[in-house]
Amino acid sequence: MRFITAIATVLAAANSVAAIGSLGFDLGAQRNSDSACKTTQDYLADFETISSQTNIVRVYAASDCGTLENILPAIQQSGFKLFIGIWPNDDAHYAAEIAALNAYLPTIDASSIVAVTVGSEALYRGDMSPSALADKINEVRGIVHGMDGFEGVPVGTVDSWNIIVDGASAPVIQASDLVISNAFSYWQGQTMANSSYSFLDDIMQSLQTIQTAKGSTDIDFWIGETGWPTAGGAFEASVPSVDNAALFWQQSICGIRAWGINTLVFEAYDESWKPPTSGISGVETHWGVWTNPGTDPKYSLDCNF
Ligand SMILES: *[C@@H]1O[C@H](CO)[C@@H](O)[C@H](O)[C@H]1NC(C)=O
Predict the structure, then answer these.
(1) Residue of the nearest CA to atom 4 in ligand 1?
(2) What is the pLDDT of residues 4-20, one digit of tens each?
(3) Per-residue pLDDT band at 115 (split at 50, 70, 90)
(4) 252: CA distance to ligand 1 center in Å?
(5) Which pTM does this prediction carry?
(6) Catalytic residue among 48, 97, 121, 267
(7) Which of 183, 234, 255, 266 could form a disulfide with 225 if both were Cys (CB 3.0 to 4.6 A apart)?
């Protein structure tokens, strides 16, 4: 019942936007597989491989590993478009993020920036309260919109779908031009057979919550992270494999884009430097759609639109 209502809501939203949702890729933690910080050349190599699918990517930070300093020249050269993340805590990290934003954002054309987001699952992890995060979103909007030409760049946040649906997130939704929702059927321990149902249900609920809070179906909306690991240990009923990742791509990612929902996929490349999640063997290093830049995708990314 809840699902049917939500589908009707998204239909109303989808009818007013492009028929097929856009595709983008999360770039991970600004590090190469050997954990060295990515250079501008590394980002250009990343983009060359991704360009077979899209020209939209997302990074999680402005200052870590010199993110903006190194990626913006590659964005400029390649014509790619970027989601920029800002870590809102701790205070020293936030200050470094703002310093990088001030130093480097004005060096690029505002049309290259899809959005600036403050916090990546900050509420999910309990890093800060909704009202404290809302204050940071408003502060960052003031900084971004104070830059010449950047007045129209959306500033918002990214969080897990269940946190968005939870009423406590209301101040954050109100403070955001754009609320981005993450949903992983894998981390919900879903069977393959139920993974696309669960994914669509999660996303529709978060979209409906945002639309209700905003009092409009005419809003920008993106999924910030979704995907399926190709190797590593099972989580409850969820089993990593190339075949399952390919099926999740077809049923869930192609499926939801066909409904008109913009989707960022987690993630472009395996992050082999990452430490293991406790209790689950090796899954964190196998979320890439590609193993490395310059390789073929691990499975077919064609959608039958
Ligand atoms: C399928 O997913 C939905 C939504 O997450 C959940 O409510 C339901 O219990 C799941 N069904 C099965 C059989 O796992």
Answers:
(1) 198
(2) 445 545 544 544 445 89
(3) very high
(4) 15
(5) 0.94
(6) 121
(7) 266
